[in-house]
Amino acid sequence: MSEEYSIRVEQSFRDIDPESWNRLSGTSKSTRTEDYNPFISHAYLLSMEESGSATSKTGWRGHHLLLDKGDGTLSGAIPAYLKSHSRGEYVFDQGWADALERAGGNYYPKLQCSVPFTPATGPRLLTNGIDSAAFKQVLASGLRQVTERLGVSSAHVTFAPGDDVSALEDEGFLTRTDQQFHFINNGYRDHTDFLDALSSRKRKSLKKERRSALETGIEIDWLTGSDLTEDIWDQFYAFYMDTGSRKWGRPYLTREFYSLIGQRMADDILLVMAKREGRYIAGAINFIGGDALYGRHWGCIEDHPFLHFEVCYHQAIDFALAKGLKRVEAGAQGEHKLARGYTPVTTQSAHFITHPSLRRAIADYLEREKSEVQEIGDYLDEHSPFRKGDRQETDE
């Protein structure tokens, strides 16, 4: 790269040209491919900000890195935030924070490169697709330099793909692994074809579970596009608040967030809604990518056996098979997903720690953690619900 480039920082997506950002992130409507990831689009990230969900007030202060060519052309970018806490990230580092603060240091603020409240792997070092590896290396170097100049404790790039992680490793970032459960569509013709790949015992159990989930007269609707009215969002938000308040204490997303994504990206959204006696009682929100369905969160105002599994996991598989999608990513954690046809998949993050002693301790910990994650993954894969010879092959 012989031309001159410079890195600048923008605090708001309102100050970043949407088309330039979408061109880098592969989310421009005119050039989308099967790699399209809705979470990294300008519309999604702007909605997080404008809705009040991810702002300075909630501990997510925008600090987005932009790589400019000498003529002003945007050639690279990283979505980043200065964080005053570690909530809403799904890659847990509170123990690291405690260790540094017990030693008299300050862990916060830290630089977080991610999509707020969204544990889905996607590009973090955004490039224009031309000489991508070289631009990723420049971005990785720029991120390290910005971290050092800010004087913060660390930079964290979470749920990053392998090529991003490789570039970051070359700049001294430590790699961390974790695990999720994804459904992989191995060319199944339909749901019956998928069931035939399961062991007989698991197939019978799954069929029984699905019948039980709907036996009280519950019906399932798939809503997308123009179906997503404000009334529907009101109902879904009530589910989200009821369940989220019990699980997390304080749900992250505001009601305005749903209105904004409904206006800006309705065709990329699938609501799976459960109806009983003429009214909706539960629902799950999913986002539709180029080759994947991304499950995010669910909520309910009535408890029914197995309804969570039906709405969140079984219906997602049904939709993916109907639309020819390659996989379903059902969010963070959850070994219970294994019995529903989901397979363990390794996820990665990269961490730059400026404090030398803390870095050494974390590096040692991550090596041990990596071995444990691998061992757990191997064990779970051996207990897959699929017949021998029909194990799902991941594309991760």
Short description:
This protein is an alpha+beta fold and 396 residues long.
What does this structure look like?
By secondary structure, the protein is α+β, with helices and mostly antiparallel strands. Helix content is 37%, strand content 23%. It has 11 helices and 15 strands. It has helices spanning 18-25, 42-50, 94-102, 132-150, 162-169, 191-196, 200-214, 230-248, 255-264, 307-323, 356-382, and strands at 5-10, 60-62, 64-69, 74-78, 81-83, 110-113, 126-127, 154-157, 174-184, 219-223, 269-276, 279-288, 292-300, 327-332, 343-353. The strands form 2 sheets. The chain has an 11-stranded mixed β-sheet. It has a 4-stranded antiparallel β-sheet with strand order 1-3-4-7, sandwiched between helices. Helix 4 (132-150) packs across helix 5 and helix 8 (230-248) packs across helix 9. The mean pLDDT is 93.
Give the topology, please.
Blueprint: E1 5-10, H1 18-25, H2 42-50, E2 60-62, E3 64-69, E4 74-78, E5 81-83, H3 94-102, E6 110-113, E7 126-127, H4 132-150, E8 154-157, H5 162-169, E9 174-184, H6 191-196, H7 200-214, E10 219-223, H8 230-248, H9 255-264, E11 269-276, E12 279-288, E13 292-300, H10 307-323, E14 327-332, E15 343-353, H11 356-382
Parallel strand pairs: 6-8, 13-14
Antiparallel strand pairs: 1-3, 2-5, 3-4, 4-7, 5-6, 8-15, 9-14, 9-15, 10-11, 11-12, 12-13
